[in-house]
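In the design runs reported in the main text, the only information available to the sequence generator was the tokenized backbone. The following block is the verbatim input for one such run; it is reproduced so that readers can re-run the procedure and compare outputs position by position.
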């Protein structure tokens, strides 16, 4: 039987926010969103003022905190402690950013199944396809927990594209696919490149799965 990314503990964990917005680069690291809750409009005015990037998520995008840090997440070695976004009860989630962004897009992911991420120039996954990324199953490859967590391999993915992106479709398998450090304006997740390379617009990603069953 597969394990879930949802862990055994049920306590919520709110970590110190470390979302970056330097030189026009926006990084969504999901710290502070909460444990086993929808991300929703946290980055669209529902969270702290300094995290209002005009970014909203569809209902399938949920946040999880690492079980080793008091949450219910069955993952380890996450790129930025201790929260990630995962697909809950659906095989895709949509991110909208009304102001749009250009140049590049990147993130880390961990998945027990093949997944995909598509970038569009219209809202809600509409319009022209600007970039498409096919992701392989790699969540358990060549790694161990910290000390616990089955989804222990997080792979860096990035892409450069032409045009202005307004939405992203994160596809995978419910409770089997997670994302972290979703970054707008750079093909290097969580990193801030030199100013010459930036072109971000406006203020602004059951069974052995990303979440274990609750008791």
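Verbatim output:
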């Amino acid at each position: 039987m597969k394990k879930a990314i949802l862990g055994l503990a049920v306590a919520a964990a709110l970590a110190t926010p470390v979302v970056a917005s330097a030189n026009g680069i926006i990084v969504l690291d999901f710290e502070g969103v909460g444990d086993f809750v929808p991300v929703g409009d946290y980055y669209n005015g529902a969270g702290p003022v300094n995290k209002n990037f005009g970014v909203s998520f569809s209902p399938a995008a949920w946040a999880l905190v690492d079980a080793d840090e008091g949450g219910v997440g069955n993952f380890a070695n996450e790129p930025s402690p201790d929260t990630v976004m995962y697909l809950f009860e659906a095989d895709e989630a949509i991110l909208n950013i009304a102001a749009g962004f250009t140049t590049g897009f990147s993130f880390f992911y961990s998945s027990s199944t093949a997944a995909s991420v598509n970038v569009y120039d219209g809202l809600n996954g509409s319009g022209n396809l600007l970039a498409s990324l096919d992701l392989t199953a790699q969540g358990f490859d060549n790694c161990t927990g910290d000390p616990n967590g089955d989804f222990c391999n997080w792979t860096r993915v990035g892409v450069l594209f032409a045009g202005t992106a307004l939405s992203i479709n994160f596809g995978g398998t419910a409770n089997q696919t997670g994302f972290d450090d979703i970054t707008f304006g750079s093909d290097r997740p969580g990193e801030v490149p030199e100013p010459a390379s930036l072109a971000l617009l406006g203020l602004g990603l059951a069974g052995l799965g990303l979440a274990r069953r609750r008791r």
